[in-house]
Design a protein that fits this description.
alpha/beta, seven-stranded mixed sheet, globular, Kynureninase (chains A, B), Aspartate Aminotransferase, domain 1, homodimer
Chain lengths: 395, 395
């Protein structure tokens, strides 16, 4: 059994805070501070430009990918890190569209908006008659057809936590000649993912949520080994070139997943991410999933026993990721009141209060206490104060 | 007069090293360590998700752009930071192509290869008959015509240090209806740049060279205020949306330069960059340019007095950026021998040894000593050892 009491000691958690927002930004791994200090003092400071070789900076994009690969069921050498998730979505989608003559990109209305925006931007730039079609999540399976070129989905819905059946949808899509792109933003580090077993074509994800890589941590991209040598990168940057330091005039894609690298990688963010990934050593993802479900179920039960809030996530645990949302017409103010009491979740428009469950550092006692505080706030009406209604830029 | 003895104290420079490679990666600003520690401990660690508001993370991309703007002669609010330089080249080029029906992108053979690669990738993805034409740098002016849609140049050549006349070329291009994109990778922090005065349309640059932002520091992009509200972003990520946290289904570009943001910004890299930019407070860029020329001229004179190396940079200081290259048939080995003696420059294929001059932290004594050591290595033939010929991944 994974020792979650031990993994909890690896993170800094602020005194008096119950943190139910690791699905937005994971907490600071205690090892990150020393790792950053070392990267600055011993590497950047002392090695300067030679750090690209001596400290191994140049190889880190794919070395980190290899550390993430087992968490998402990917083959070694099939994942590389860098850029942002939006950029990686663009790369995957541009590559997928290049592999098919079909013009329809199918997604769902629960996909994270930036994925849809990147598709819209790519379609506009290409000006080749592509179309983004979005349907309700539960209608994806029935909408698959031989007119669809690419199925682009986020496995776990950022608002409701509803989880697609990756294996079944990938199989159904591929039977119709559709290429699949899976966004794992709310999956990687939240639950077991089986990219290789599911025969996924492309996947992308971020590392600042359940992987605890820090604010603005780099994204990752997966390309199935059966495709990668044929993939034509639209974002053909020098670090994806076969020989970046030959400084050739013409782009030649690098071997394997290396071609999905673009520009100079963010070494300070890499250092923090590398420290964060240490926490996964010895973690069994099935233990993680069981603990996540236990925490989520307990929270739902405690909230429903104490309040009349309406669950906005699937009732069946296996159909959820590692987060739970409730609807409240004044969700924003309720969440601000919760945060003021030290219970940090977040609000998602129009009316959802959202809570993430992260067994690496979250205990059952905290989950129960969070439900108690939520009930107190609703019971007393203390959320209905002007300061809790005032909107800030990021919610 | 700028006090360069004072700015030197702001950087950590390794004992016994003469660093002539600030044009590849600037040294560690002493303030960066404390800034990172603060960002990790006080912001990420204590504020967690609320750091996006409380610590101002969300506003930093454009706040940092506003700190860079005066260094490149840009209007306030016209620069934003993030991603890599290759991504920013793609954004600028996609936006520029969207503004013209002409199909030719003109660049020169001295442009940094990644800029050309990104153009090739974009052209391939668009599949609309665009063509990248490259000519020798000195032939750019005569090649401008009404067939050219976009002129995409790096102001200072990464190999030779040759500097284009931005004002003259921009004017000549615009007289023919050509849109200009300037890559300032080797200009920002190296010499005065006057984007607004030159009437440039787009500019991009990196911050890890002369701006000392650290390995993988974010890039920046400039869009002329007269264009920005019409620019249609190809990389239409959520942080470039008018209201990112409304989570609308459709992309609507944000106001002004905000629309050139893409995904979640790299906050740890931003912290280091912000610390690095402190060094520019009180620096007069004309003093910087004068000091850079003095250092470069002294180095050329000392090298030519002691060796028969052939200058591969323009002879006239005003035609160079802040770097100087010499040709040597075994340039790679010579540079390795120099590095082994503590003189760090770099090698650029096929045969250039390259030296950057950075008055913020480099003294005339160091420059003279570097020339002496170079002369000793060439005189003794000590560069001709197997260990100096062995290639590593990054040179």
């Amino acid at each position: 059994m994974t020792d979650f009491a031990a993994t909890r000691t690896l993170f800094h958690l602020p005194e008096g805070m119950i943190y139910l927002d690791g699905n937005s930004l994971g907490p600071l791994p205690k090892a990150a501070q020393a790792r950053l200090t070392q990267t600055l003092a011993d590497e950047w400071g002392e090695m300067l430009i030679t750090g690209w070789n001596k400290a191994g900076w140049m190889a880190q994009a794919t070395a980190l990918g290899d550390r993430i690969a087992p968490l998402i069921g990917a083959e070694p050498g099939s994942v590389t890190c860098g850029d942002t998730l939006s950029i990686k979505v663009y790369q995957a989608l541009a590559a997928a569209l290049d592999m098919t003559d079909r013009k329809i990109i199918l997604s769902d209305t629960g996909n994270f908006p930036s994925d849809l925006y990147m598709a819209q931007g790519l379609i506009g730039a290409l000006d080749q008659g592509h179309e983004l079609v979005t349907v309700a999540p539960e209608r994806i399976a029935e909408t698959l057809s031989e007119d669809v070129g690419v199925l682009m989905l986020t496995e776990v819905d950022y608002r409701s936590g509803r989880k697609h059946d990756m294996a079944a949808l990938t199989k159904a899509a591929q039977a119709l000649g559709i290429i699949t792109i899976w966004d794992l933003a709310h999956s990687a580090g939240a639950l077991p993912v089986h990219l290789s077993t599911c025969n996924a074509d492309f996947a992308v994800g971020c590392t600042y949520k359940y992987l605890n890589g820090g604010p603005g941590a780099p994204a990752f991209i997966y390309v199935a080994p059966r495709h990668v040598e044929q993939v034509r990168p639209a974002l053909s940057g020098w670090l994806g070139h076969e020989a970046p330091f030959a400084f050739d005039a013409d782009y030649r894609p690098g071997g394997g997943i290396e071609r999905m690298r673009v520009g100079t990688p963010p070494i300070l963010q890499f250092a923090a991410l590398d420290a964060a990934l240490d926490a996964w050593e010895g973690v069994d993802l099935h233990d993680l999933r069981a603990a996540s479900i236990a925490l989520s179920e307990r929270f739902i039960a405690e909230v429903e026993a104490r309040t009349d809030l309406v669950l906005a996530s699937p009732r069946v645990a296996e159909q959820r990721g590692s987060q739970v949302s409730f609807a409240h017409p004044h969700g924003y103010a309720v969440m601000q009141a919760l945060i003021a009491r030290g219970v940090v979740g977040d609000f998602r428009a129009p009316n959802l209060i959202r809570f993430g469950f992260t067994p690496l550092y979250l205990s059952e006692e905290e989950v129960v206490r969070a439900a108690e505080i939520l009930a107190e706030i609703l019971e007393s009406g203390s959320w209905d104060r002007p300061e809790f209604h005032a909107r800030s830029a990021v919610t």
